[in-house]
Amino acid sequence: MAGHTQAQDKLYHNEFPLKDVKLLDGPFKHARDLNIQTLLKYNVDRLLAPYRKEAGLKPKAPSYTNWAGLDGHIGGHYLSAMAINTAATGNAACKQRLEYMISELKKCQDANTVNHPGWGKGYVGGVPNSKETWSTLKNGDFKAYHKAWVPWYNVHKMYAGLRDAWLYAGNKEAKSMFLKFCDWGINITSGLTDAQMQSMLDTEHGGMNEMFADAYQMTGDKKYLIAAKRFSHHMLLDPMSKDSDNLDNKHANTQIPKAIGFQRIGELSHDKKYVEAGRFFWQTITQNRTLAFGGNSRREFFPSASSCTDYVNDVEGPETCNSYNMLKLTEDLFRVHPKEKYVDYYERTVFNHILSTQNPETGGYVYFTPVRPRSYRVYSAPNEAMWCCVGSGMENHSKYNEFIYTHQGDSLYLNLFVASELNWEKTGVKIRQETKFPYEPQTKLIVEKGSSHFSLMVRYPSWVKDGALKITVNGKNFPYKAHPASYIAVDRLWKAGDTVTIQLPMHNTYEQLPNVPNYIALLHGPIVLGAKTGTQDLKGLIADDSRWGHIPSGKKFPLNTAPIIISDNKSEIPKDLVPVKNKPLFFTAPKWELINPIKVVLEPFFLIHDARYMMYWMTLTHKQYHSYLDSLSTLEKKRMALDKRTVDFVAPGEQQPEVDHAMQNSNSYTGNNMDEFWRSARDGGYFSYQMATDSATNLSLIVRYWGEEQGNRKFDIYIDNQKLVSEDNTGKWNQKKFQEVEYPIPNSMLEGKTHVRVKFQSFPHSTAGGVYYIRLARKKAGPEKQ
């Protein structure tokens, strides 16, 4: 049953309980209310089905099928969303669902304790094949663990859901279940050595170290702090604690939750290693790896500096889950060191990335936000797609009121300019913030009731010019000496009727794409501006339940035919924007010199939906553009021709594509070379993928290899256990560049099939691969050679 509703301050002492911050009319309230409508369309018994199944109880409804193998992860996010909305709005339906989920999950936890006494006491997970996975892992056998799809990542979502049910909604039963679940986690790993723990953590495991740190803060029991440190991955912790960025080509959202845990451990234990690791991780991501709208990563991985051009080549742009987790890390760091730079990033990301990932009509969620010029986003539909970004999206649009205000001692921090009301119970003061920001460059705070002496810490955003911020208190100018990227303390005895007006003049700027200086994004204040470019071929705009439905599958328009800005001085480009009369934050660009011109109407990126768009623009000088366009055109024609031929492809060594293609392997290894991932198999080992044929014949297998491999490289390639070819790459090219080999596939291997399994089998004492990229592609036009 629900207890007091202010448990939130037990973990996050600087935040106000969500019930004390009320959103007023504006884009965030609209998004939050629409999100509740969307959430209530989901079938709770279907979300709970994996938990009942693994506990030995009969499910009350069939489990959702999309992303089978990760069954249960959405249920944890959904529980968090129910808790957040119960606390923030008092919504009766959310409260009822929250309490129903807790009662059902309690039955599962109890059943696991009875039905699986050897390994299941306290377990609340929906991981498929839980019995084999956890019972064998407990004994140090990782075979079943590695066959499962990221089991710790999966259960982490329910850990967080139970914590949040207590944290936000004050549910005491959830707290008890959470701590029992933590005890299960300690018990299941108690027999593992430190080396085995680190080996286990090589697989994505969410923020498990954060969960144990939270349990330590909730109880004061040091066994949880010890567990938090045991669940901290030294592959990331050690370099980050020494201010060393080792993130190139690493799966982005695997790393960010680890850093949240580092920060929480450092915050609670004051261990300098963890403190520095959390701080530096945030710094290097936001300064070196973040795009203008706050997102990071492409194809789910952090690119190296030299491969950042992938942002404009690929359609799998920054992932929403990454920003979800970076915002959590930001809140945590701000709690310890309330610096404006943290809020600057938070504001940028919430307005431009998070707000943009909800369809304003359907409430659907977005996985990838493409940066490629003239691409588009894909949205989920309720009860269809069970992507990770659906789960985090359920929470994202529920807690917009969490960070508008914070408090520290007798200081009230005004962080975000969002229409809202704050009821500060401790002081008896109620404050109303009236604003249409970002559509108007100001906000007004009115003390509606109460009287108290405190410092109002007014944020001076980095995007306001030095000396341009204006503060008036009850109509009188308030003098200050501060500069941008700071806070201004307005210290006084506040009483009902006091009014503070803050003028926040915004101006136009540009930012370069990280490590790709000829692509820029345009901003007005903190708001990223985009331009719609049409609605042609928005294939899969509302995703179905298919495996790859979260990726835009419509035609890629060539980069060389996208609009390109010609300017010898980039700083003049934002100055040339002309405001559209009576349409705040809309601009035209009549002075721009464009190649492949369009009618440019720039608007807030978060308003662009159900359309292709430009977020980043190629910019070239007059001297550059002739030679550059010629070379770009040649590259694009070759790339587009290959894409058009491609029926299916796999990027070996990358987690998601390999899971999506049901990889099987033995004695197989992965790595990275020249910013590309590879997979190989040694000494009789193999690896294979199930690939779609689109029921076509006349296909070829195209394989990318590195041209200067060492040692014996002899192997066979099979199509459904029929040998296609024997390959020997030993000393074949001796060139330090990639080589693509096309192997025609006999139609007899393809006829009547929708899928084939492509297998690379190494010879004894030899290596198959490394293989960098695999395509099934239609054969080029011309005479066939079988």
Output the keywords.
786 residues, alpha+beta, Glycosyltransferase, Immunoglobulin-like, ten-stranded mixed β-sheet, nine-stranded antiparallel β-sheet, 21 helices, 30 strands, 34% helix, 24% strand, globular, disordered N terminus, hydrolase activity, Beta-AFase-like_GH127_middle, Beta-AFase-like_GH127_cat, Glycosyl hydrolase, hydrolase
What report would you give on this structure?
The structure is a single chain. The chain is α+β, with helices and mostly antiparallel strands and 786 residues long. The chain folds into five domains: 7-191, no CATH class; 193-357, Glycosyltransferase, CATH 1.50.10; 406-437 and 442-503, Sandwich (Immunoglobulin-like), CATH 2.60.40; 508-620, no CATH class; 647-778, Jelly Rolls, CATH 2.60.120. Helix content is 34%, strand content 24%. Strands 12, 13, 14, 15, 16, 17, 18, 19, 20 and 21 form a ten-stranded mixed beta sheet that branches. Helix 4 (73-89) runs antiparallel to helix 5, helix 11 packs antiparallel against helix 12 and helix 14 runs antiparallel to helix 15. The longest helix is centred in the N-terminal third of the chain and has 24 residues, at 92-115. It is globular, with a radius of gyration of 27 Å. The termini are far apart. Mean pLDDT is 95; it is low at 1-5.
